[in-house]
TrEMBL record:
Keywords: Hydrolase, Lipid degradation, Lipid metabolism, Membrane, Transmembrane, Transmembrane helix. One of its GO terms (molecular function) is 1-alkyl-2-acetylglycerophosphocholine esterase activity. It holds the Pfam family PAF-AH_p_II. The chain crosses the membrane at residues 6-25, 89-110. This is Platelet-activating factor acetylhydrolase domain containing protein. One of its GO terms (biological process) is lipid catabolic process. PANTHER family: PLATELET-ACTIVATING FACTOR ACETYLHYDROLASE.
Length: 524
């Protein structure tokens, strides 16, 4: 069922909402009695029990509290003596029920579009604290914008093909879901609404068809190809569930990293602490220090890329040695992964992260959705916008091939010769590229999309004779590469420019089709 041409309401929650509203409507129209109180009690119990707490389905539960108070007052007012008071109580009660119905329509409990039909497999899930070695050596490591310490683990989610029947698992990790909603509202909502994180607690009701610690399906002869996914600013492993689960259903092992640079809403650490989103860097932008702001973002990209590469090494290590956590769950990746068929993928900040990481450990391909090219450190920016490939271009590419804001990478050394050598090695020589842009960004020529499109049209994008591709998702907005537009009421999403007139479910599917078609093309 699709509501308003773009959202999929949770049918069971709709039924629970209707039952509660009907029960209270019946109760306020009846004289106070044991039966009416039993009906109200049942309605209240059903909605709170089914939603899990008062805030997950606040559109029903919040109006229900004053409604119960008003109905309790009826017990102390003889209707034959104070009929006008009873009528006032009835009117206010009816108004609360009407308000609840309106709020439930305006803020429906929704779910993601089905993903099973997009592949031949079901999806298994395992959350890990993956042992890694990460040493951040940037001269900016002492700033508050990155985590400057050595890290011995990374928080990752692995999605993988399985033939076991799926269960319904929580879309958001239960132990971090409340903080997740709080940080999302704090950094993304209009200022007056930021304290009210319960407004998106309905996301905690979402379930996705998958199974924790399911048995890995039998791999192809060379093992499963592996995709390493880097989330965007404000994103997380959960926020890209549609795209990542769909790829796992098609036979890829998909590893999603929760970055610790402060860009994720919340990251659960192995020691039990929670790392919250840190956007103090925005003070530079608001103070008019745009160049410093871009430099800080570029430094964060370098840090994120180093995290991603540490995870690549850690996951590929699972191909020949397992972890106690995996042994306990009966899950084994040994000799199941194709280490020669790995891909880096990401959206926005994550797209820049994937492109930068590819400079230092080239994968088979990079799949970048609306990559934040302006946040690429110098060597990867000059590598992507390779001036040697712009000789016959008629597009103004000066900013990307010679200008920009220079940042020192976490991978750079003090040896200038090494830096120059790194810059001269073109990303196009080693890695197939899928650069997929929203119409929103492409129409504004953001992130050098016009320059990249020109390279594609002149057949100089990626390796010579390769299968690199540049594409535009028409009618799409930047955030539609994530799940956000499938979860946000359309009347809000369209008003604030989060999505356009297209059904966001259709947009998400087209993004997946373009991505998977590119990957299939690489397989031959």
């Amino acid at each position: 069922m699709v509501l308003w041409g773009g959202l999929r309401p949770i049918i069971s929650q709709v039924v629970a909402d209707v039952f509660t509203l009907f029960a209270f409507s019946n109760a306020i129209a009846s004289k106070p009695s044991n039966r009416s109180w039993a009906l109200k009690g049942a309605a209240a119990g059903v909605t709170i029990a089914y939603s899990g707490n008062l805030t997950n389905r606040w559109t029903v539960n919040f109006p229900m509290i004053p409604l119960i108070i008003l109905q309790t007052l009826r017990l102390f007012i003889p209707e034959d003596k104070h009929r006008w008071i009873s009528r006032i109580l009835f009117a206010f009660s009816a108004l609360l029920i009407f308000a609840s119905a309106c709020l439930s329509i305006l803020f429906p409990a929704v779910e993601l579009a089905p993903m099973k039909s997009l592949g031949d497999y079901n999806v298994g899930v395992v959350d890990l604290y993956l042992p890694v070695k990460l040493h951040f050596t940037s001269p900016f490591a002492d700033t508050q914008h990155v985590v400057p310490s050595e890290q011995d683990h990374a928080t990752i989610r692995i999605l993988y093909p399985t033939v076991e029947e799926p269960m319904s698992i929580s879309y958001l990790r239960p132990h971090t879901s409340e903080v997740y909603c709080e940080e999302n509202m704090k950094h993304s909502a209009p200022p007056p609404l930021r304290p009210y994180s319960w407004m998106i607690h309905g996301w905690r009701l979402i379930q996705v068809p998958a199974k924790h610690h399911a048995t890995l399906a039998s791999p192809p002869d060379n093992g499963f190809p592996v995709i390493f996914y880097s989330h965007g600013l404000g994103g997380s492993a959960e926020m890209y569930a549609y795209q990542t689960h769909a790829l796992a259903a098609q036979g890829y092992v998909v590893v999603v990293l929760d970055h610790t640079d402060g860009s994720a809403p919340v990251v659960s650490r192995k020691d039990g602490t929670l790392l919250r989103r840190n956007e103090t860097i925005l003070e530079q932008w608001f103070n008019g220090l745009q160049d410093e702001y871009r430099l800080s973002r570029q430094t964060m990209t370098a840090y994120r890329a180093q995290e991603l590469l540490a995870v690549v090494e850690g996951v590929l290590r699972l191909n020949y040695e397992t972890l106690p956590e995996l042994e306990e769950s009966g899950l084994d990746f040994r000799n199941q992964l194709n280490s020669a068929d790995i891909h880096y993928m990401g959206h926005s900040f994550g797209g820049a992260t994937a492109l930068h990481a590819a400079k230092y450990r080239p994968p088979r391909s990079v799949l970048a959705h609306d990559p934040a090219s302006d946040w690429l450190p110098t060597e990867s920016r000059l590598s992507l916008f390779d001036v040697g490939r712009m000789k016959e271009s008629t597009v103004n590419h000066t900013y990307w091939t010679r200008g920009g804001t220079v940042a020192v990478s976490a991978m750079e050394t003090e040896d200038n010769d090494e830096i120059e050598k790194s810059v001269t090695l073109s990303l196009h020589d080693t890695t197939e590229l899928l650069l997929l842009f929203s119409e929103e960004w492409y129409s504004k020529k953001w992130s050098g999309s016009d320059v990249l499109k020109d390279m594609h049209d002149r057949k100089v994008l990626g390796p010579v004779g390769g299968k690199s591709h540049f594409g535009v998702i028409h009618g799409a907005f930047h955030q539609e590469f994530s799940d956000a537009c499938m979860l946000t009421p359309l009347w809000i999403a369209r008003e604030v420019g989060l999505t356009g007139l297209r059904n966001p479910l259709d947009t998400a599917k087209e993004i997946h089709v373009e991505t998977s078609s590119f990957l299939r093309g690489l397989q031959g």
